[in-house]
Amino acid sequence: MEQMSGEQRREHQQKIKRVFEEVGKVVVGQEYMVNRLLIGLFTQGHILLEGVPGLAKTLTVNTLAKVLKLDFQRIQFTPDLLPADLIGTMIYNQHASEFQVKKGPIFANLILADEVNRSPAKVQSALLESMQEKQVTIGETTYPLDRPFLVLATQNPVDQEGTYPLPEAQVDRFMMKVYVDYPSKEDELEVMRRMSNMSFKSEVQTVLSKDDIFAIRDEINSVKISESLEKYIIELVFSTRRPEEYKLKELSHYLMYGVSPRASIYLNLAAKAMAYFDEREYVLPEDIKEVAQDIMSHRLILNYEAEADGVKSTDIIETILQKVPITK
Questions:
Q1: Average pLDDT of the chain?
Q2: Are residues 158 and 255 in the same domain?
Q3: Does residue 206 lie in a domain region?
């Protein structure tokens, strides 16, 4: 039985490599983003993507949905969007003389909430409720959402006029905040060549099924993490709350609030996923450090002094990773 499960694990790990290859047929140089999206999918954590327009965020998510054969819905958030446009509503059927439920686009496996900060708080809260509860109430009936269910929300860091920034407490509900950067010169050259060739078409093949995804979740859950590394995660988290105790007094001037307990949960889950992708059955310190920025940066709340001195949350986390030791 163990031999069979080991073979299945290796087969799934090879399939994950093929996912990267298939997405790469369409999208150039976004392996980092695809890696983080897969971590979110396999650990049931939602992802917030931030980057300037034109970095293939929508194309990447759409292609990934095809490779995984999942239902995909893109919702463009606008100032006039209503919660009913997202979750659905009751519509009166004159022929049947009764109200019927019309489900909204939230009933899919992969949801791309494009420019989530362009809609007012009511719409944002409707989205966040469905993320948290994995269900939607329309009228008096509650409907479970499809599984797997993953929300990928994008924010545009430029052109902030007329936007409704997500409050810190709501941003905390996202497992990761992934910063999507400009491509390298080589990657952009390849993008230009592909996109300027109007006959360019690349068909992608389905690699993973829903059953594979659920099985991979169980396999990631079985990845071992030592007690010393569990304690290391707690030390990293507490160093953001009580920096003076960790000889990080210089950081206390900039921190208003440290990271929430969700950070320690997601650091554990994401580190297991990183180990699994690397075909290991145990977590290394490097796995935790690899995902720390994505999981912790949007949970740190800095004060005005940090803004005045040009200190960013990524700088603070980098210092913490350098100075907080791993306890035995």
A1: 86
A2: no
A3: no
